[in-house]
Amino acid sequence: MKTVLIVDDAAFMRLSIRKMLEKNGYEVVGEAENGLVAVEKYMELQPDIVTMDITMKDMNGLEALKAIMERDKKANIIMVSAMGQEAMVKDAVLSGAKGFIVKPFRKRPLSRPWRNSKVW
């Protein structure tokens, strides 16, 4: 079973992503509310996959992505972005993100990238 770290500043979004992933057979091993905590938890938990929100306080998702990629070039990070953040998504992919999901999303589209990607 693939392990996942969910990173989002909104508790309801973390819960929503957790429910969808667990329903699709993934094990959520941790959650983080900002990029600083995400980097610490990534190093501690070594998850197979990270879902990373872009806009967060203290350290945003792009900064956290870059910090994790500096430590582990093989990290599998999927960015979760709001509509209108195309430039940030492009920067994230160029910085090592394996893909992105645009929110708001419905349950069915969220599970599709997991199944169609080599990461999952």
Low-confidence stretches: none
Helix content: 40-55%
Count of distinct structural domains: 1
What does the average pLDDT come to? 87
Biggest sheet: strand arrangement:
2-1-3-4-5
* The CATH topology: Rossmann fold
The name of the CATH architecture is 3-Layer(aba) Sandwich
Shape: globular
Number of extended strands: 5
DSSP summary: helix tally = 5
Determine the structural class based on helices, strands and strand pairing: alpha/beta
Taken in chain order, the helices and strands follow as: EHEHEHEHEH
The biggest sheet amounts to: 5 strands, parallel
Radius of gyration computed on alpha carbons: 13 Å
**CATH class (first level) name:** Alpha Beta
Strand content: 15-25%
The CATH H-level superfamily is Response regulator
Q: Distance between termini?
A: 10 Å
Detailed description of the structure:
This protein is of the alpha/beta class. It has one domain: Rossmann fold, CATH 3.40.50.2300. The chain is about 45% helix and about 20% strand. It has 5 helices and 5 strands, in the order E-H-E-H-E-H-E-H-E-H. A 5-stranded parallel beta sheet has the order 2-1-3-4-5, sandwiched between helices. Helix 3 links the parallel strand 3 and strand 4. Helix 2 runs parallel beside helix 3. It is globular and about 30 Å long. The termini are close together. The mean pLDDT is about 85.
